[in-house]
Amino acid sequence: VARRGVEAAQSVVAMGVPDDANPLNRRLPAEVVSRRRKPERPQPAQKEEVPLVTDKAQVLALKAEHRLKWLSKALMKCGEGKVQNTVIYDILTHKAFTNDVGDKVGVKMFRAVRANLALFSQKQQRFLQDSDCRLVSLF
């Protein structure tokens, strides 16, 4: 029985004096979990993509340098799957696409098309490499 009294006395000392009014003396070891949410960072403003003009009349009305820019954007979008290759092919093979195009711009157009031939079907590739294509015959 004396042994139990010693253990009881030790537990009283560990928990604090029972007559003590301070709750911190009788506290149990515990763990606190914080459930704070991180403030959401605003996403950097992404440029809104301007849709690529695929109207043949509008593209053919562009100046030669702007047609080169259009062609490079169109080939890039076609590689991403956002524009159909037939639309680009129809505009490329139109006889007015190479009108008023200087040698420097024409060579750049030709190189861009040749570098992205894999985007087109086999039949389209053959025509784009054939001398019947105005882009090939001129540049």
Key phrases:
single chain, about 140 residues, mainly alpha, about 50% helix, rod-shaped
Can you count the beta strands?
0
Kindly estimate the percentage of residues that lie in beta strands according to DSSP.
under 5%
Basic shape: rod-shaped
**CA-to-CA gap between the ends?**
110 Å
Summed over residues and divided by their number, the pLDDT gives a mean of: 84
Order of helices and strands: HHHHHHH
Helix content: 40-55%
Folded structure, characterized:
The chain is mostly helical and 139 residues long. Helix content is 50%, strand content 0%. The chain has 7 helices and no strands. The protein has helices at residues 2-15, 56-60, 64-80, 85-92, 103-115, 122-129, 134-138. α3 packs parallel to α5 (103-115). The longest helix is centred in the middle third of the chain and has 17 residues, at 64-80. It is rod-shaped, with a radius of gyration of 38 Å. The N and C termini lie far apart (110 Å).
Structural topology:
Elements (H helix, E strand, L loop, with lengths): L1 H14 L40 H5 L3 H17 L4 H8 L10 H13 L6 H8 L4 H5 L1
Helix pairs in contact: 3-5
Summarize, please:
With 139 residues, the chain is mainly alpha-helical. It has 7 helices and no strands.
